[in-house]
Write a structure and sequence with these properties.
The chain is α/β, with parallel strands linked by helices and 636 residues long. Helix content is 45%, strand content 12%. The strands form 3 sheets. A 7-stranded mixed beta sheet has the order 7-8-11-6-12-13-14, with helices on one face.
Amino acid sequence: MGKYTVKGKKLYWFPQRSYVYESNQTGETPEQWRERVTFEWSLSELRKKSVNIKSCLYIFHDNDKDDDGIEKPLHVHGVIEMNANCGIIQDDAKRFFGCSSDENCQAMVSRKDLVNAYRYLTHISTSAINKKKQRYMSSDVHIGVDDDVVDEYKNRSRGLEEFYYDCCTKKNEREADNKVERQQTALQKYQLAVSRGQITADQAYDYIEDDVADEGFTITDALKAENSLNAAENRFYKRLQRYCCKNSWVKTNIYVFGQGDKGKSTFCRYFAESHSNSRGYHLVAAKGRDTTFDFADGYKGHIVSIANEVDGHFFKIEQFCDVLDPKYAANANSRNSDKFYAPNYVLLNNSKSLEQFIYDLCFPLISSTSSYAVNYLAFNNPAEVDRIVMCSPDRDKICQVRRRFAIYVVIQNNIFSVYYRVNDKNPCGFYHDRSYDIDCKPFVLFDNIAYNPNDAKCLDACVDLVDKAIAEYYTVNAFAVNPLNSGWGSLSADNPFGDAVVLPNSDDGVISVQQKKMILYKQQEYEVEEFNNIIRRAVDFIDKTSDYIIQNDLNLYNVSVAELAVIFAKNQKFFKLDDIFRSMWLLQFYKEINNLFYNSRIMSYMFSDIKYAFMSVRAKLIGSNKWITSNKYNKK
C-alpha cells in the first residue's frame, strides 16, 4: 500500500487490528474480541465518530499462515470509504478505527488501490494469489452500507455478497481503468490555474497531494509533470508582462530607517505578511563580497518585496530608477536572465538615513560629471557639495531617486514616525548631513506612535498607520495611478487572464491584496467626476459660510462648532453634505481660517480652487470687519 505515514486527507482507508495485541491489554477471549470489533466497526458506531463515513467492509482472518506454514494469530482487515471531498487525516483514522500504528492504518490514493484492497479481504487480489494465501468466502465479509444500498441488492441472487463482488470487479475496475484520463484532466486543470496566476506550481503540488489524490492524480504524477507546471507558470509571467506593458502599475516604495536592533526588519516582515497573499513575500538576497547585486533574484509574482540593509552604492542610478519606478512594472537585471519585477510594495530598510542612501547612490555620478573641481573638503562640507551638484548635468538624478520613495519610516528612541512625500517639493541637492531647507521639505510627518517590536498590537497599529499614510500620499498628490486602479488588486478585479479555476477545498481566489487594506483607499479616493463635484460644493460652501457669518453678524469666538452646524442645518440646503465631509470643512473653517495662510502644510496641499476660495473669503471678512484681528492671528 505504500508508505505507512501519509500526509493530507484521504478518502480510502485500509485498517487492520490484531487480537493478540489488544487481548494482552483487555484479557478478552477471541469471541469477545470479535464481538467488540463487530460493534466498533458497525456503520452506525463509526458514524458517531465521523458522519462522512460512506461504507465499511471488514473480515476476520483466522486461517492465515506465514511463509514457513505457521498459523498466524487472529486479526481483522477492513476497507473504509469516506464521502466525496470529505477525507480524514491519518491520526483521525487511527483513532476512529482503533488502530495501534500507522502501519496498521494505511491510506489508498487511487481507485486501483481501493479495488486491490477489496479483493485482499478474501485473498483474491493478484499479490495474495501469487503468495498462495488462504482463500475466504465472500459471505465472511461484514458489509456496512446505507439502507438504500441494502434495498437495492436485497432482491438480487446473492444479496450484499453481490455488492462486495461489484466492489471487487465491474464498478471499481471501470473507474480504475480511466486513471490515465483522470490524470490528464486533473493536470490540465492545475496547469490552467497556474497559467492564470491563481496558484503557483509549488502550490499545485500541495493541492494534488491533499485534495485530488483519490482522483487518480498523485503527487508522484505531479512531480513527473513538473516541467509542464513550470511551463504554465512561465506563461503566466509572460501574460503578466504583456498586461503591465499596456496598463499602468502601482509600486509603493517604503524606506525604513533605524539603528540596529530597533525592530526595522520585524516591522517589514509584519507589513509583508499583512499585505501578501498565498504566494508569500519576496526577500531580496544580500550582496556578498565580489558578487553582483541581484535585486530581483527569487521574485515570483509576489505582492511585497523586502530588501534588508541595502545601501545606495549597491545600485547604479539608472538601474535603481527603472526597477523601482512607482508607475510601471519593470524588467530587472538578474544573473541568469532578466526577471519581470512587479510587486505593489517594496520595503528597503537600512541603518542609514534616506538622504544618506540617496547620497551614496548619486554622489559618485554627480561628482564625476560635475565641472566643479572635487577635493577632499567636499565630502565634509555641504557648501562644497552644493557647488558640485549645481555644476553637474546629472543633478536631476537626485530628484528622480527621491521621487521613487512614497513613504519614509523613521524608528528612533522607541518612536515610530511615518512621513509621506510631497510631489512638488523635491530639492535638487544632498541633505545627508543637514536638515532640509525651510521651503523645500520633500517629506511631511503624517503621524507617530510609540513603538514596541515585541508587541503584536503595536505592530498592527504601525502597519495601519503606514497604510493610512499611503492613502494620504496618493490622495494629496492626486496621482492618476494608485492602489485602487492599478497593481495586483485591479488585476484580481479585471481578471484579464480568464475566469478562476475551481479547485477542491480551495479558499484561495485569484491573486489579490487583502481587501481590508484597500478600504482605506476607497474612503479617500473618488472618481474624477464625483471628486470635481465635491470640490465645487466645497467652494460653494466656503463662500456661503462667509456670507452667512456677515449677514447674521456672528462672533466666531462665541459660537461653538456644534451651534454653527445646527444653524446651517436648519437654514441652508447647501449644507446637506456627507457627515465626514461637512465636519471636515466646518472644523477647518472655524479653527483654521485665522491662521490658514500661515500654515504651510495645509496651504501647500490644498486644491487650487479651494485655496482661491479661502483667500477670497479672507478678503471679504477683512472688508466687513469680521476677520479676527487679535495679535495671535494677525500675522503678516
